[in-house]
């Protein structure tokens, strides 16, 4: 490990002077005296520039699988770096991207998903962009010769959905605070209630029935609406979505950027519904959180709609790509990560850790200001509310969830809430003693809520 050459104070000053942080109100950030700067990682731990150690309670935003600085993953990157760091997939192949595509198709087949082709991009948002553009162009490529006979320019998406921050993904997003400012730049999408609402599927069917040639696809986050508050719905909904898509002849897109690679307890959330989507978007856990890489998997049927002689049908080519598509370093570490899933029996370990998390969340229900808890695999959520009976939320300006997570640093836990939802999503490979420490720490921190609420009441008098 190289020595730290700059003081924490220097780094904080430069951060405030030069950096613009994502999803961060910058005024309070620049006025905060307690900016935390991470210097290194080791397994499920992160270390700051002062040497303090924390459990990574959110998997560095839901992507870390095996931990930080894992020797097998580090070695895979170093070995590939000795060969080549990057080579374009435009008109060329590269070895890691070919091997990973083969491995992914074999993996989804083993999980019961009939997907046959892999398209690479850079991250989760771009994987969704690829899926939307494929779905949109698919209908043009297979359209009958009569102009306007099958327009299919719209999508159906869920309220409270989040699919990324590029404009196509923003179009499909249903969280106003993230997406409202950009709606005039976006393509048309019809939103329905989340599947936790009893009429969600009926809303989808009404749209499809009223406009049978309008929709290129339906996009959902299967089983868990992540950034919308870790809203969990039953797997049978996926089968009902598949049936609706088939009945009304549209495409079904699953955004498994967050849920893929073991987070829900199975390798893919789609497995739990025994459903194959037409397009499957993956990222985050694909490289175990090491490097950016996105993947969109699709069926042979969709691929064949683009399979044409460019001298005869040049318009059928899928004109989409990225400079770092199929990045060799990222593909190499993804292959090593999949090896570790097998070698460590990681999904079995996830089930054990999931049971510990479930017990913790049930205990959390009794605390004041806890309105609900939600759990699936190694996803835990504790929803904080002003009133338990009515589920009335706190005023958003109070940032109760943020205040509680900041106080958890004193317990050596690094957490990040979704507004007032406390999210518990450690690396899948977290060791049992540290999983228990994380769960106990979160549970004990709930005792601080009355004090935090009292302080906020003084800061924001009505």
Which descriptors would you attach to this protein?
462 residues, alpha/beta, Aspartate Aminotransferase, domain 1, Aspartate Aminotransferase, domain 2, seven-stranded mixed β-sheet, four-stranded mixed β-sheet, 16 strands, 15% strand
Write the layout of secondary structure elements.
Elements: H1 8-18, H2 26-31, E1 38-42, E2 45-48, E3 53-56, H3 59-62, H4 71-81, H5 95-110, E4 117-121, H6 124-141, E5 154-158, H7 167-171, H8 176-179, E6 189-192, H9 200-210, E7 215-220, E8 224-225, E9 231-232, H10 236-247, E10 251-255, H11 270-273, E11 279-282, E12 294-298, H12 300-305, H13 328-344, H14 346-364, E13 370-376, E14 379-384, H15 400-407, E15 413-414, E16 421-424, H16 432-445, H17 449-459
Parallel strand pairs: 3-15, 5-6, 5-7, 7-10, 10-11
Antiparallel strand pairs: 1-2, 2-3, 4-12, 8-9, 11-12, 13-14, 14-16
Helix pairs in contact: 4-13, 5-13, 9-10, 14-16
């Amino acid at each position: 490990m190289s020595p730290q050459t700059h003081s924490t104070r220097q780094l904080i000053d430069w951060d405030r002077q030069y950096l613009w942080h994502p999803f961060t109100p910058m005024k309070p950030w620049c006025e905060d005296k307690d900016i935390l700067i991470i210097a290194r990682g080791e397994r499920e731990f992160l270390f700051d520039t002062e040497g303090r150690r924390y459990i990574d309670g959110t998997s560095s935003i839901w992507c870390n699988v095996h931990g930080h600085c894992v020797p097998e993953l580090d070695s895979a990157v170093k070995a590939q770096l000795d060969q080549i760091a990057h080579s374009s997939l435009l008109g060329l192949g590269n070895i890691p991207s070919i091997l990973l595509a083969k491995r992914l198709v074999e993996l989804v087949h083993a999980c019961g998903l009939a997907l046959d082709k892999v398209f690479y991009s850079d991250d989760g948002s771009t994987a969704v962009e690829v899926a939307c553009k494929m779905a949109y162009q698919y209908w043009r490529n297979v359209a009958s010769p009569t102009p306007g006979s099958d327009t299919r320019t719209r999508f159906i998406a869920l309220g409270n959905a989040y699919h990324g921050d590029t404009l196509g993904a923003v179009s499909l997003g249903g969280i106003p605070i993230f997406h409202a400012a950009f709606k005039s730049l976006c393509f048309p999408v019809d939103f329905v209630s989340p599947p936790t609402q009893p009429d969600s599927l009926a809303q989808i069917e009404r749209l499809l029935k009223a406009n049978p040639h309008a929709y290129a696809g339906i996009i959902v986050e299967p089983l868990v609406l992540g950034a919308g508050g870790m809203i969990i719905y039953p797997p049978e909904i996926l089968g009902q979505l598949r049936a609706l898509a088939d009945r009304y002849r549209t495409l079904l897109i699953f955004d498994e950027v967050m849920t893929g690679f073991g987070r829900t307890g199975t390798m893919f959330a789609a497995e739990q519904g025994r459903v194959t989507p037409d397009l499957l978007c993956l990222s985050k856990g694909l490289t175990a959180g090491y490097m950016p890489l996105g993947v969109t998997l699709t069926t042979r049927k969709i691929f064949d709609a683009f399979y044409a002689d460019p001298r005869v049908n040049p318009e059928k080519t899928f004109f989409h790509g990225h400079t770092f598509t199929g990045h060799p370093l990222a593909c190499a570490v993804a292959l090593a990560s999949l090896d570790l899933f097998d070698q460590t029996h990681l999904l079995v370990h996830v089930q054990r850790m999931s049971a510990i998390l479930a017990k913790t969340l049930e205990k959390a229900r009794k605390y004041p200001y806890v309105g609900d808890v939600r759990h699936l695999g190694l996803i835990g959520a504790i929803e904080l509310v002003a009133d338990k009976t009515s589920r009335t939320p706190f005023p958003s300006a109070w940032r109760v969830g943020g205040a509680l997570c900041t106080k958890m640093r004193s317990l050596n836990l690094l957490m990040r809430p979704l507004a007032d939802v406390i999210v518990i999503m450690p690396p899948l490979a977290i060791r049992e003693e540290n999983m228990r420490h994380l769960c106990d720490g979160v549970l004990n921190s709930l005792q601080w809520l009355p004090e935090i609420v009292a302080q906020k009441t003084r800061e924001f008098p009505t």
